[in-house]
Structures are given as C-alpha cells and as structure tokens.
C-alpha cells in the first residue's frame, strides 16, 4: 500500500467521523470511500441519500450564518458610556481645522438578508431512450446489464 493510499484511507476515516459527529441523528450514515486520483492525490468519494444531504446542507448553512452574525457589542465603561477608539501605536494624530465641524460616526449593523427557502426539484421520471444519458464518473465494478 502506497503512502497516497494510506493518506486516502485516513482522510476517508476522518471525514466519516466528522460527518457522524455533525449529523448524529441520521439513520443512514453517508458512504465515504477513499481513492487516489490519477495525479496521485489522496481523495474521497462521498455518497448520501436525500435526507442526509438536506441535513448536511442545514448544518453548513447554520455554520455560515454563525460566521456572518453581527459582531460583539462595543465595550462599555461602568457608567454605560462608550470609550473613544484607541488609535494604533505610531499613528499620526491629526487635529481637525478649527472651521470644520466634528461629526461622530454612527455605526450601523450589517443588513440581515433572509436566505431563500430550499425548493425541492419536482419529481420527474427520466427516460433515456437509445442508451443516451449520464455516464458515471468512475467506472463501475458491477455489471451494467
């Protein structure tokens, strides 16, 4: 077994464990298969049913929403006032000209955009006449007839 094969096995095992930890309530675990591509790069193939795919998309969307959440509130003094911002060390201190008004900058939170709801594709019974249709990306070891 080559080093790339061992790395692919480890990658598949680690991904399988992370998927189980992130989606513990699923009755059927996704299938994670190790392989080494033609360039010698350790890789994995991931196969899952529709329920597992939806659960994974929900977890990913939740984590994405957590990263784009509003920043932590400003620090406040004991009396409730906000301290002035501290300039970085070595930054020049420029005084405003006496005839220019001093305007306090108001901070507005980022707008929250609602995520579009998941719309399931309509159920269609595809018919591929004459043997045309999608071809597998990976050759199958199972008979095709």
TrEMBL record:
Name of this protein: Uncharacterized protein
Skewed-composition ranges (Pro residues): 82-91
Residue numbers spanned by region Disordered: 64-98, 124-145
Superkingdom, natural source: Bacteria
């Amino acid at each position: 077994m080559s080093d790339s094969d061992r790395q692919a096995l480890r990658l598949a095992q680690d991904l399988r464990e992370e998927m189980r930890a992130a989606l513990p309530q699923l009755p059927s675990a996704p299938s994670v298969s190790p392989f080494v591509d033609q360039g010698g790069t350790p890789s994995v193939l991931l196969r899952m049913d529709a329920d597992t795919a939806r659960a994974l998309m929900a977890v990913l969307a939740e984590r994405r929403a957590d990263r784009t959440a509003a920043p932590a509130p400003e620090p406040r003094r004991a009396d409730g006032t906000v301290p002035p911002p501290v300039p970085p060390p070595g930054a020049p201190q420029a005084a405003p000209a006496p005839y220019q008004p001093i305007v306090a900058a108001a901070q507005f939170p980022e707008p929250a955009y609602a995520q579009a709801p998941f719309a399931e594709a309509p159920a269609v019974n595809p018919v591929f006449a004459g043997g045309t249709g999608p071809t597998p990306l990976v050759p199958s070891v199972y008979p095709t007839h």
